[in-house]
Amino acid sequence: MSRPPTASELDLCLCHSCGLACDMHDEPHQCPRCDAPLHRRKTNSLGRTWAYLLAALAFYVPANVLPVMNTMMLGSGADSTIMSGVLEFWEHGAWDIALIIFIASIAVPGVKFVALSMLLITVQRGSTWAQQQRSKLYRFVELIGYWSMLDVLVVALVAALVKFQSLGDIEPRPGILFFGLVVVFTMLSAMSFDPRMIWDTPPDKELMDDPIQQ
């Protein structure tokens, strides 16, 4: 069964600003409707995605090792890392906050690292394996990226609640800065990846996968 033609085969390009299907026969540099820049693929997508992902991975280590906040109660203070904060909230019965911090700070970045690495490697290898599922995986990575700042918001909320009381105080520590950088660079990595590359099948593999042309 023959497949329908792709946009590149029809010499078309979709404007990322207004969604107009633009004719690329004369290689226009701007969309005729909204004047936005046109590009068939995101510029240097693989290189930029790898760079942002590796930077996020480098910041992920100090984000989990360094303390993210210092809690002062009744004159005695203690620094807390992300994981120790999760355990402390859990032990004090705040399992909902502990679960939110664990998912947003530990699980979500780990899932994004694994998913983006898998997408990059399969694209570089020109793999035709599970293309539809990989496209859905990329959309899932984009979706969870918007919730990656929950941990920072929880720390700010807890700090505001404790400061409201006269016997306690909470101050941020360097770990929260590194975690913020992890969130920013993983989002930049996901934004730099061009999911259309998942469907860029090399001609030799396309012939092998099409039984009619064999």
From TrEMBL:
Keyword Cell inner membrane: yes
InterPro entries referenced in this protein's UniProt entry, alphabetically: PqiA-like, PqiA-PqiB_transport
Any Pfam family hit: PqiA
Keyword tRNA-binding carried by entry: no
Keywords (A to Z) from UniProt: Cell inner membrane, Cell membrane, Membrane, Transmembrane, Transmembrane helix
Residues annotated as transmembrane: 50-69, 97-123, 144-164, 176-193
Compartments reported by the entry: Cell inner membrane
Listed name of the protein: Paraquat-inducible protein A
Taxon lineage: Bacteria, Pseudomonadati, Pseudomonadota, Gammaproteobacteria, Pseudomonadales
